[in-house]
Design a protein that fits this description.
Bound molecules: 5'-deoxyadenosine, iron/sulfur cluster
Number of domains: 4
CATH architecture of the largest domain: 3-Layer(aba) Sandwich
Structural class: alpha/beta
Largest sheet: 6 strands, parallel
Helix content: 25-40%
CATH superfamily of the largest domain: Methylthiotransferase, N-terminal domain
Radius of gyration: 23 Å
Number of strands: 19
Strand content: 15-25%
Oligomer: single chain
Length: about 475
């Protein structure tokens, strides 16, 4: 359950005494301490890392250019697939020599991977130079953790203290000055059978509407042009709030904020896309014309095994409604290939769905067994070779679709928010309203952070190329 406002205030206030103490300790070392944060995983993790950075700065650290130069290194980890975990562990292995060189260096592992007890045991035994480990819901407690490690000179594991609160007021250091992430909710209650997220990020809880509106207002006042609302399942925003508010209403109210900015959101669960949300998107030009709608599989049988709570037909109906209301909407999706028990026929259903919907991007992943999830207990007869083969077929089909889609942009003019200044090859970079990457030339060089019109001249598989006109 979300805490009341007063409890939240107390939580973050609690950190003040630790902040003062850590500042003193750092000062006594006689040089400016530096921090380095590496983020694995999704946008939510990136947003969390911006808060870890903000807190480190508030404690007196400055950003280090490299890990070699840092006194505090934090890896903000992901657990969604085994590959992400193995990458974080392998990089953690490479930190040992840094610890040997700099005795003052503190190393922390944060987030989803280390919200699993088994992984914490691994860290305790196999990585003795890791000083602290903290789960996703400890974000506001970095000062307390560092204070504990520094004063008591001991390793700390903040994992089983599952305190699923929402804490406002954590300092933030944003990575980008044009686009900003705003978390609107945390956790997930869906329990898709393949997914580790509900186990590592806990139950769904929403931030209060007023807090979200205040954050967006401040960002817009500070010149941010694009706001992306984040949540594991943004469509179910508000269900835990005392003062009821749904996602469509939240989007509508954010659009009323004055200023030249646009809005994106992710991720949406297909079962919760309401007609009202579609109406709100249609009626508000501030909402970008992009909808990321992870389907996961085109087979109703597999969707049921995944506990997705929608059918192939239900999903296609949502797509139809979205396209009818907003004809230029760009659709993207996530797909899992080789879920336990996925037959050749089930996979054909996925291919035919992709053929039908024609997504602009498909993020496809081979199923990865996550210990503790129901799917990890399901029987799986498909060989790894077969799964790889299915993945290649899926990618080939998507490539066909995207070639036709991208070709249809040639000769058209699109509005792009310039997010990358001119590179050494003379190209600026940005995204269309539909989130399509555009590389373009421009005679006017003063366009970073501004909207420009780009005439599309050619395309690649994952980008459009053109000229600012
Ligand atoms: N194996 C493979 N892919 C997964 N995803 C989530 N869990 C798994 C898993 N166990 C994918 C889903 C989700 C995206 C963020 O990651 O497609 O939408
Ligand atoms: Fe994000 Fe899920 Fe990975 Fe956690 S496990 S970082 S919520 S993708």
């Amino acid at each position: 359950m979300a805490k009341t406002f007063d409890e939240n205030t107390a939580d973050i206030k609690n950190q003040e005494k630790y902040t003062l103490r850590v500042r003193e300790i750092l000062k006594s070392k006689g040089r400016t301490p530096k921090y380095y944060i590496t983020t694995f995983g999704c946008q939510q993790n990136e947003a969390d890392s911006e808060r870890l950075s903000g807190t480190a700065k508030n404690l007196g650290y400055q950003k280090a250019e490299s890990m070699e130069d840092a006194d505090l290194i934090i890896f903000n980890t992901c657990a969604v697939r085994e590959h992400a975990e193995l990458r974080a562990l392998s990089k953690t292995g490479q930190l040992k020599h840094l610890k040997d060189k700099n005795k003052n260096l503190l190393i922390g592992l944060w987030g989803c991977m280390v919200s699993q007890e088994k992984r914490v045991e691994d860290i305790k035994h196999k990585y003795p130079y890791v000083d602290f480990v903290a789960g996703t819901n400890m974000l506001h407690r970095l000062p307390e953790i560092l204070c504990d490690v520094m004063e008591n000179d001991r390793r700390r594991y903040y994992v089983d203290e599952l305190d699923y609160s929402i804490v406002e007021g954590v300092p933030v250091e944003r990575n980008n000055d044009v686009k900003a992430y705003v978390s609107i909710m945390y956790g997930c209650n869906n329990f898709c059978t393949y997914c580790i997220v509900p186990h590592v990020r806990g139950r769904e809880r929403s931030r209060k509407k007023e807090d979200i509106l205040a954050e967006v207002r401040e960002l817009v006042e500070n010149g941010y042009k694009e706001i992306t609302l984040l949540g594991q399942n943004v469509n179910s925003y508000g269900k835990t709030l005392e003062e009821k508010c749904d996602f469509a209403t939240l989007v509508e109210e954010i659009c009323k904020i004055e200023g030249d900015f646009t809005l994106r959101f992710m991720t949406s669960h297909p079962k919760d896309v309401s007609d009202r949300l579609i109406e709100v998107i249609k009626n508000n030009s501030k909402v970008e014309r992009h909808f990321h709608l992870p389907v996961q599989s085109g087979s109703t049988r597999i969707l049921s095994e995944m506990n997705r709570k929608y059918t192939r037909e239900g999903y296609l109906e949502t797509v139809r409604k979205l396209r009818e209301a907003v004809p230029d909407i760009v659709l993207t999706t996530d797909i899992i290939v080789g879920f336990p028990g996925e037959s050749a026929e089930d996979f054909e259903d996925t291919l035919s769905l992709i053929k039908e919907v024609k997504y602009d991007s498909v993020f496809s992943f081979i199923y990865s067994k996550r210990p503790g999830t129901p799917a990890s207990e399901m029987e799986d007869f498909t060989s790894d070779e077969e799964k790889t083969e299915r993945m290649s077929r899926l990618l080939a089909l998507h490539r066909e679709n995207i070639t036709a889609i991208n070709a249809s942009y040639v000769g058209k003019t699109v509005r792009v928010l310039c997010e990358q200044d001119e590179d050494e090859n003379g190209f600026f970079g940005g995204r269309t309203s539909g989130f399509k990457l555009v590389k373009f030339t421009s005679e006017n060089k003063d366009i970073y952070g501004k909207y420009v019109d780009v005439k599309i001249e050619s395309f690649g598989e994952s980008l459009l190329r053109g000229q600012n006109i």
